[in-house]
Each structure stands twice: as C-alpha cells, then as structure tokens.
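Sample intake sheet
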Amino acid sequence: MGAAPGIAGSRRPEQEGCFLAADEWERDWFIQMNNTGGAVDVWEVHGINADDLIQSPEGHYFFPAVIPATELRLIQRDLPPGRRG
C-alpha cells in the first residue's frame, strides 16, 4: 500500500495492525470499501491465533503486529473495484 491514503483519505492507520476478514461476507465488504479505485489482491493468512486478534471499535478484527510473508498466500489477484471475491 505504501503511501496510498487509507479510509476517507486518512494518512494514519485506523488501527496499528492488519485487519483480517473472518468470512467471505467481510472479505467482500473490505474489497468494496477499496477507495483507491484500483485493483485489489486477496491474501490468505496462516499461523495467526484467533486469541491474538483485537476487535476494533467498529467491530472488525485486526492483528496488532506485522504478519510475516511466510504466513501469506495470494489467492486472488487484481480484482476490479466493486467486485466481490
């Protein structure tokens, strides 16, 4: 993501960590929320214990640390804006 703005153009992260979708509905919601107008990739995460997730005030869960690349697997690439996974 680099220097791309966050939700509503924010220059700061909403939370200090990485939001993770719990199911397909939430995955699709995050995809549709894409505000950059560009394509979106979907990654599967392994090795994260559900007890280590923190619930944000908005009700979404995030992992409060960097997720190692070895725990990620690309499962969908270049989904156009507004498309469901």
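Comment: The chain has one domain: 16-79. The chain has a mean pLDDT of 84.
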